[in-house]
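To: structure subgroup
Subject: Chain for Friday's discussion

All,

I'm putting the inputs and outputs inline so they're searchable in the archive.
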Amino acid sequence: MKNDQIKNIIFDLGDVILNIDVPIASKSFADLSGREQAEILTIFKESEIFRQFETGTMDEPSFRNYVREILKFPDLSDEAIDTAWNSLLLDLPPERVELLKKLATKYRLFLLSNTSSIHITQVNKILKASTGVERLEDLFEIVFLSYEMGLMKPDTRIYQQVLDKAGLKAEETLFLDDNADNIRGAAQLGIETIHVQKPVTILEYLQDYAV
């Protein structure tokens, strides 16, 4: 149900705007290295490589070198690593972008994503190919990315930074995310939330807001 107090909408990226399938990445790295997918998942979890990359403590060259190190595969090319890492990024339905354009006539729109620079480069390519829109910044007033902020959802500090930087009041702000922990983090600050759960999409969740 529509909340008439809402003036601002913050969107997550993966499985909210862009369809993703996270396990595909670990399978891609397993195929590259000749290891089992379960082993790859364990290696990545223990090294916290993706957390480091997505909070900006590791840049692109460091990330790629660390992948080579933990997979014990020194000859792995930059391109192969990037392709495997980006394999979890699927399609971006054009109708979701059309919804964003419609919402932008009534609300201030923002993006808040736990992500990495390699992913954002690829997302912008997918966005342009599917909709003609050059980059995410063309759809949102401000794009907030974890690797630039040094924080990740569901840390409440990341939501507070968004509110402060954009000059938003929590009670006038709606946040959509597919991760329940991220929803709870935002709700702790008094932000209105919608937990996006497939197969329902933002087209249905925000139908009343787009009218």
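Points worth raising on Friday:
The mean pLDDT is 97.
Residues 117-131 form the longest helix (15 residues).

D.
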